[in-house]
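2024-03-11 09:14:02 DEBUG pipeline.ingest accepted 1 chain
2024-03-11 09:14:02 DEBUG pipeline.ingest length=239
2024-03-11 09:14:03 DEBUG pipeline.predict start
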Amino acid sequence: MLQQSRPAGRNPTGDFLAGARAILPLIVAVLPIGLVFGAVSATKGLSALETVLMSALVFAGGSQFVAMDIWTHPASWIGVGFAALLVNIRHVLMSASIGTKMQSFSGVKRYIAMLFLADELWAMAEFRAGTTRLTPAWYAGIVTPFYLTWVGSSLAGALLGAFLGDPAIIGLDFAFPAVFIVLVMGFWKGPQTGAVLAASGIASVAVHQFVPGVWYIAGGALAGLGMALWQGRAREQAA
């Protein structure tokens, strides 16, 4: 008797490898970002060990760069912590969105998954959930190599910081916005998406011009959310 094949998505090893293959292009993209962060942290006086610990424990590129931007000696832990809170407040919306698609995750696995919810991983998980069931093994497949690459490239950047010099000179600083441009375009759904991006961009620039600190991140996020809500209500009224 022929053995029945296991249904798709029920093979943890296969799901893990599929996730690792899916995240590979973003791993290539995050590598220079990690190098830049490591180099910047070295210029701020952080040791290689401190840089690795920050990347491993914080694991949030945006807030780590903001922390380096306002880093002083001695560091203002309240200021750095508040800046990180503002930058990462978007994770509340991201986790609420992806959490509704984690039906196959147990309570513990869901909480662990949220600890590794970076922008790139959230986007990949959303894409996956739009076509098939999101499984813990597949999610682990995108998280593991991405996490190791981020920590490893941060270490390499910290060790090679003196040789890399100013990242802007060789164009490494553009890697960060380039990744997010690709992610945003993956969610493109026409003029409605453009309106949300325009509202977010205009609000961010305006807040950045008139309000000190990193409030422009929260301002852009709220403006984009407001535009999306307005569009949703307009569609309901038109229906």
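2024-03-11 09:14:41 DEBUG pipeline.report The chain has twelve helices and no strands.
2024-03-11 09:14:41 DEBUG pipeline.predict end
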